[in-house]
TrEMBL record:
Mitochondrial cysteine-specific aminoacyl-tRNA synthetase that catalyzes the ATP-dependent ligation of cysteine to tRNA(Cys). Its EC number is 6.1.1.16. GO terms for biological process: cysteinyl-tRNA aminoacylation. One of its GO terms (cellular component) is mitochondrion. GO terms for molecular function: ATP binding; cysteine-tRNA ligase activity; metal ion binding. Its cofactor is Zn(2+). InterPro entries: Cys-tRNA-ligase (IPR015803), Cys-tRNA/MSH_ligase (IPR024909), Rossmann-like_a/b/a_fold (IPR014729), tRNA-synt_1_cat_dom (IPR032678), tRNAsynth_Ia_anticodon-bd (IPR009080). CDD domains: CysRS_core. Belongs to the class-I aminoacyl-tRNA synthetase family. Residues 137-347 form the tRNA synthetases class I catalytic domain. Its main location: mitochondrion. This is Probable cysteine--tRNA ligase, mitochondrial.
């Protein structure tokens, strides 16, 4: 499916980029207690300037929040992407805001691994929450490693001690530990700029209002652990820095999260990791997903604003496939409006693809008679679509362009599947439609959309008995309908009717056939009459209340 990517990749360096303190920085001693790390002129020249990594050029471009533009995606090791993401803080039921970020980055990781052959090593920290509903209900691939904060307290304490040793943090008499932003000079603010920084609430012993907590002294009714500074708990940002470093060390290819995490969370993660590792650039690429908004609201969906929809409630009206298509229809970086109209657009797109699939299958089985197909033009259209899809995915994972390319392919396929009443003995071209269907299914499988509804079909009947029963029932109905539609020969000497129609005695049979078709449709079995022939399909039954939408 994706052969052109391998041959289009340029010959690339395989040397892993390492930003060692001895090479990339120089020391400027400004006081006995403060050490500023400034990039050397040979490295970046400016404290916040991004350094293009050396290593393996994937041939892709991705929007990097560090530079505010698309950059070539260069990995430290060929065929491997180290990826860290902050898990959501879910206090009770996971909502669609969490799910949207999960699904969007799941799509990107699927594309990297299944289209471009990159092994994504994904690590996620979770704040002792259970996000199984997201993975189970929305088919999100699990990370390679899940790490819980409470199981890594000793590592967090050691990480803080390392930052203190490097003279980038200090402890207060109250038992708090703060990161010393002044110690890194103009290197703070790589994502948002130092001018945008606002300080966290804290005690009077803070050296700078922007200094943020690495360790907080214990308070009544709060969980706490022992540390060199007394009992307390980790600060919010230090958890991710410690866990990411414990797995990936001093360098990370990709860091992801919602745009709301860019500041202060990711900004402070960068400061902590570069201070601990004494490196000029810890994370090479920061990817941020846009917020999910309720239609008409300027605020993101969140529990604190009481404007959220739980995944459980959502799945009472829509399917996981429909939500994933909803995410595919917008760029992952864009804000996205949640509304019945936007969900119905996703549903309509899937319905169009499903209808084309059934028509193409009917044509391939000889149940749908059409005029001669322009087979050569369709093969060319398929090749063009494949190239367009790869180009779109290589350009910052542009899934709306991918969906548009597939829908255009479906449109051109449908143009050749217009039924005719009388067979004209034209040559048939089933192979090209088989190739269309195989490719469309493969693309959406890569993106996490199951067009075959394999999971639902397996849960209904894994032995195929249901399909066999429906086939026999549909065949019997077709025979009855064909008999009812048959016209008696005109007796000799009587004038022939201009438009012969079934005799009145057979009309109840036609009515019974129509009634059966309608009754079966309500059960998820859809029969389509195509002239004298009929085809059928079993679709996923919509949850109760869905039709009201």
């Amino acid at each position: 499916m994706w052969p052109c990517i391998t041959i289009c990749r340029p010959l690339l360096l395989k040397l892993r980029s390492r930003y060692a303190f001895s090479k990339d920085t120089r020391q400027t001693l400004v006081s006995p207690s403060k050490l500023i790390f400034r990039p050397s002129a040979s490295c970046t020249g400016v404290g916040k300037k991004w350094t293009r990594p050396t290593g393996y050029d994937t041939g892709l471009k991705t929007y990097n929040s560090l530079t505010k533009q698309k950059e070539p995606l260069i990995l430290a090791q060929e065929g491997i992407a180290t990826w860290y993401s902050c898990g959501p803080t879910v206090y009770d039921h996971a909502h669609l805001g969490h799910a949207c970020s999960y699904v969007r980055f799941d799509i990107i990781q699927r594309v990297l691994s299944r289209v471009f052959g990159i092994n994504v090593i994904h690590v996620m920290v979770i704040t002792d929450i259970d996000d199984k509903i997201i993975r189970r209900a929305l088919e999100v691939l699990p990370p390679a490693v899940y790490l819980r904060v409470t199981e890594n307290i000793p590592q967090i304490v050691a990480f803080i001690e390392g930052i203190i040793r490097n003279e980038h943090a200090y402890a207060t008499k109250q038992g708090d530990v703060y990161f010393d932003i002044g110690s890194i000079g103009d290197r703070y603010g790589k994502l948002m700029g130092a001018g945008d920084a606002t300080g966290e609430p804290g005690d009077r012993e803070k050296r700078d209002s922007r200094d943020f907590a690495l360790w907080k002294a214990s308070k009544p009714q709060e969980p706490s652990w022992e540390s060199p500074w007394g009992k307390g708990r980790p600060g919010w940002h230090i958890e991710c820095s410690t866990i990411a470093s414990s797995v990936f060390g001093s360098q990370l290819d990709i860091h992801s999260g919602g745009i709301d995490l860019a500041f202060p969370h990711h900004e402070n993660e960068i400061a902590q990791c570069e201070a601990y590792h004494q490196s000029g650039q810890w994370g090479n690429y920061f990817l941020h997903s846009g917020h999910l908004h309720l239609k008409g609201s300027a605020e993101k969906m969140s529990k604190s604003l009481n404007n959220y929809i739980t995944i459980k409630d959502f799945l009472e009206s829509y399917s996981a496939n429909e939500f994933r298509m909803f995410c595919l229809l917008t760029k992952y970086r864009s804000a996205i409006d949640y509304s019945d109209a936007s969900l119905n657009e996703a549903r309509s797109s899937l319905a169009t693809i499903t209808a084309f699939t059934h028509d193409a299958q009917a044509y391939m089985r000889g149940q749908l008679q059409c005029q001669a197909v322009e087979e050569g033009a369709l093969w060319e259209r398929l090749a063009e679509t494949k190239a367009n899809v790869v180009r779109a995915l290589a350009d910052d994972f542009d899934t709306p362009r991918v969906v548009n390319a597939i829908m255009s392919l479906v449109y051109h396929g449908n143009r050749h599947l217009q039924p005719i009443t009388k067979p004209d003995r034209s040559p048939r071209s089933p192979a090209v439609f088989g190739a269309f269907l195989a490719y469309i299914r493969e693309v959406f499988e890569v993106l996490g959309v199951d067009l075959l509804d394999r999971k639902e079909a397996h849960s209904v009947d894994s032995s195929g008995t249901l399909e066999n029963v429906v086939e026999q029932l549909a065949r019997f109905r077709s025979d009855v309908r064909a008999f009812a539609l048959s016209v008696q020969d005109t007796p000799p000497g009587e004038p022939a009717h201009a438009s012969p129609s079934p005799c009145s005695e057979k009309l109840p049979l036609l009515k019974a056939c129509d009634t059966l078709r309608k009754d079966l449709a309500s059960m998820g079995v859809h029969i389509r009459d195509r002239g004298p022939n009929s085809t059928w399909e079993i679709s996923q039954k919509r949850p109760a209340g869905q039709d009201k939408k």
